[in-house]
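Action item from last meeting closed. Structure (318 res):
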């Protein structure tokens, strides 16, 4: 039985070979193997964005400053809060957790290509890089989790794994072309990878129009729907890299410092069951123990019910 799906309800095309248990590369081999991944490809054309760290620093200062501005009493309204909640679900759950992470990075299930692109676009609206870069870096993290080669190695401290790593050169960016070659074949993903920041412009225009139409103020909607929402989604996402490698319980020997953390799971639609995930990275379900609520899994179950999700991968015992 799979969280409410009994054996006689399973369609063979919906479930494929089980998601195997996995461990990262051994620490003493990590740097050597990571360096090989970073060798330039014959036809590689990836821009090395690790040299733009000052741009990242200035962007983060700006976006956090606008968040403080958004919290001034004059910008509060029910409409603004509603926009924040909807966009938080759209970008953090559908975009990052379901789209970038379980679908694109781990191929834990399959959806029609048009829907896959919709989820990727929602992920791009989170402003956490385009899909090619996000997926490549995430696959690199799983390969070298908590070793010297891991770009947000939690052994370097909470601040480093939470966000400090982004402000320094990221050698792992050179490995992205090799690690996300499947996405690089798609022209839409290549466009999205280069232009993800531009998506905030039409979104801002829509929010401004809604704000003026509802007479709560266009800038109120923009500030809550973009900078405040981005900062919230950023820090909630980063807690998976930091908090779930510091605090929580261990159910499986995953070869790294990953933990299962219930309060991070509540904020991230199920991503806080991180030790489970690092043990079975290709599983569509991450809440593997009794009582572990995984909201993203419920979305995947809904997609399956609608006939939109197939080839769902789960650990063998499920």
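Sequence:
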């Amino acid at each position: 039985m799979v969280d409410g799906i009994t054996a006689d309800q399973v369609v063979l095309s919906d479930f494929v070979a089980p998601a195997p248990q996995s461990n990262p590369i051994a620490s003493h081999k990590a740097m050597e193997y990571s360096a090989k991944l970073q060798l330039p490809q014959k036809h590689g054309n990836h821009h090395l964005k690790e040299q733009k760290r000052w741009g990242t620093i200035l962007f983060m200062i700006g976006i956090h400053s606008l968040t403080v501005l958004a919290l001034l009493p004059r910008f509060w309204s029910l409409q603004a809060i509603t926009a924040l909640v909807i966009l938080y679900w759209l970008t953090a759950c559908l975009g990052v957790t379901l789209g970038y992470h379980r679908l694109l990075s781990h191929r834990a299930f399959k959806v029609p290509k048009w829907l896959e692109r919709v989820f990727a676009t929602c992920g791009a609206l989170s402003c956490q890089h385009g899909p090619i870069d996000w997926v490549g870096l995430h696959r690199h993290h799983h390969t070298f989790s908590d070793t010297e080669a891991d770009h947000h190695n939690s052994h370097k401290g909470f601040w480093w794994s939470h966000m400090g790593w982004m402000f320094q050169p990221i050698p792992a960016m050179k490995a992205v072309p090799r690690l996300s070659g499947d996405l690089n074949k798609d022209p839409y993903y290549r466009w999205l990878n280069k232009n993800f920041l531009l998506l905030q412009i039409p979104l801002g225009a829509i929010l401004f129009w809604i704000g003026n139409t509802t007479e709560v103020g266009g800038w109120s909607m923009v500030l809550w729907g973009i900078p405040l929402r981005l900062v919230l989604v950023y820090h909630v996402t980063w807690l998976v890299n930091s908090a779930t490698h510091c605090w929580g319980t261990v159910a499986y020997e995953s070869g790294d410092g990953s933990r299962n953390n219930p309060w991070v799971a509540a904020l991230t639609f199920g991503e806080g069951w991180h030790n489970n995930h690092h043990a079975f990275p290709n599983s569509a379900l991450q809440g593997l123990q009794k009582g572990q609520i995984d909201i993203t899994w419920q979305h995947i179950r809904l997609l399956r019910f609608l006939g939109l999700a197939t080839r769902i991968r789960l650990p063998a015992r499920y």
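Note appended to the action item: The chain has one domain: 7-37+48-305.
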